[in-house]
């Protein structure tokens, strides 16, 4: 098993994170950073019935629509397959369908607090993990569709987290009145690797290039001006934190911050 030596929590270039104490685990650290102050959350009463199924078109099968309460759930039914086989494909809300969420083998449900309200904007948050019949690298991805609801429109953002060591977290990180959502992926780009190496903090390049289950990059997405966008600083650089776990996938264990550019 891959391991990384923990020298203690090293913090770089951001007052907000520099104020953080050394936490016993990465999970505790994330819970502290993403403290959702003044955020109203509501459990959604899910319609557990099958709901009305509408045939949208037929070509070897048909699209069926089922109500999940607020959100509609569109499923492709293939006539060549047994009747009990359904392939969830995309979501919709009100009269709008988000066909860019098409991805088979995912079964969506609301997060524990499915409705989120903050700063005049409402959000519907859902989640789905790969099913047992998935194949290859797709089996590592967990999906978190978040639908922003304003008076003008409904806009979808789908967060895909490989291995999902944090789940969906949100808070107003930069205190600008807009809710920010965590986006986290394991593995680094060549540019990120070079930035970490330039810090000269004792981490070897070989580890950064090969440790897909140890090294993670955290960024933020926010919804403002009726669109989703990656949160950046005044110089146009994205806010991010790069961390290394002590053991692969062990978010409840110790970790080290390798690089950070964070609101503060």
TrEMBL record:
Q: Which UniProt keywords apply?
A: Signal
Region forming the signal peptide = 1-18
Q: Which InterPro entries match?
A: EF_Hand_1_Ca_BS (IPR018247)
The keyword Signal is annotated on this UniProt entry: yes
Protein name, as recorded: Uncharacterized protein
Q: Which organism is it from?
A: Chitinophaga eiseniae
Q: What is the lineage of its organism?
A: Bacteria, Pseudomonadati, Bacteroidota, Chitinophagia, Chitinophagales
């Amino acid at each position: 098993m891959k391991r990384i030596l923990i020298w203690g929590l090293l913090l770089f270039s951001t007052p907000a994170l520099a104020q953080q104490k050394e936490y016993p685990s990465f999970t505790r650290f994330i819970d502290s950073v993403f403290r959702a102050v003044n955020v109203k959350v509501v459990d959604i009463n899910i319609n557990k019935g099958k709901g009305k199924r509408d045939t949208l078109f037929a070509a070897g099968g048909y699209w069926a629509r089922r109500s999940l309460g607020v959100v509609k759930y569109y499923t492709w039914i293939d006539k060549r397959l047994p009747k009990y086989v359904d392939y969830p494909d995309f979501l919709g809300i009100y009269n709008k369908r988000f066909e860019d969420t098409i991805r088979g083998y995912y079964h969506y449900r609301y997060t524990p607090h499915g409705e989120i309200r903050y700063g005049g904007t409402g959000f519907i948050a859902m989640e789905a993990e790969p099913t047992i019949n998935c194949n290859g690298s797709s089996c590592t991805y967990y999906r978190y569709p978040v639908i922003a609801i304003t008076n003008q429109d409904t806009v979808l953002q789908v967060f895909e987290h490989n291995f999902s060591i944090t789940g969906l977290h949100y808070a107003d990180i930069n205190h600008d009145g807009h809710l920010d959502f965590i986006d986290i992926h394991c593995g680094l780009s060549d540019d990120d690797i070079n930035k970490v190496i330039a810090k000269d903090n004792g981490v070897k390049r070989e580890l950064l290039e090969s440790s897909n289950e140890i090294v993670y990059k955290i960024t933020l997405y926010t919804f403002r001006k009726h669109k989703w966008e990656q949160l950046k600083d005044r110089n146009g650089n994205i806010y991010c934190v790069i961390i290394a776990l002590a053991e692969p996938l062990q978010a409840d264990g110790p970790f080290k911050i390798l690089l950070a550019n964070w609101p503060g």
